[in-house]
Amino acid sequence: MKTYGHLTGAERAQLELLHKQGHGPAAIGRLLGRAKSTVSRELRRFEAGVPYDAARAQAAAELLAARPRRPGRVTPSLVAEIRLALGMGWSPQQIAGRWKQQQRTAAERLSHESIYALIGADRKARGTLWQMLPRGGRRRRRAPVRHAARTPPESNCGPGDRGPACSDQ
Questions:
Q1: Where are the domains of the chain?
Q2: What does DSSP assign to residue 132?
Q3: Number of Cβ within a 10 Å radius of residue 57
Q4: Does the model's pTM come out above 0.70?
Q5: Phi and psi for 154 in degrees, rounded to 5?
Q6: Given its phi and psi angles, is residue 100 left (phi above 0), alpha (psi -120 to 50 degrees) or beta?
Q7: Which of helix, strand or coil describes residue 67?
Q8: Which of 11, 78, 110, 163 sees the fewest Cβ atoms within 10 Å?
Q9: What is the DSSP letter of 70?
Q10: Which of 72, 128, 111, 140 has the alpha carbon at shortest distance from 120?
Q11: For 25-74, what is each residue's pLDDT tens digit?
Q12: Among the residues of the chain, which ranges form H helices?
């Protein structure tokens, strides 16, 4: 058996021909090198009251593959709120924290990671949200560490030393 992969247009055409000839899902599966459950699912999914048509099934499968798997939670009103808050100088962490503090439901808020992802996608689309970040999208640059110059002691006298050589210190 073949490892899992979507049926190709050629496989769907063969499936249509074999199905019209009266072969069952198990026989078609053996001839195509696919599991019988894959064949029966394909027939059940795209037969729906009309005879199986490979071209129609391929077009429907491509349409299904093109749509997003999970609907996004980003709504135009959330984007408008993010734009307003960024315009006031807030960071994505502050925006997400404020929404959590307001006890919004999970559907009404985004995490700061999701806000950054939205800003990144907007930047790829030549948007301007990234310019509204507190540092204008620039990364933080740490200041160089400066050590105080150490000078060697002028004499060998320590804090507990006494005597004529160390008395004037």
A1: 9-66, 76-132
A2: G
A3: 21
A4: no
A5: -75, -25
A6: alpha
A7: coil
A8: 163
A9: S
A10: 128
A11: 999 999 999 999 999 999 988 887 788 999 999 998 888 888 877 767 88
A12: 9-20, 25-32, 36-47, 54-66, 76-87, 92-101, 112-124
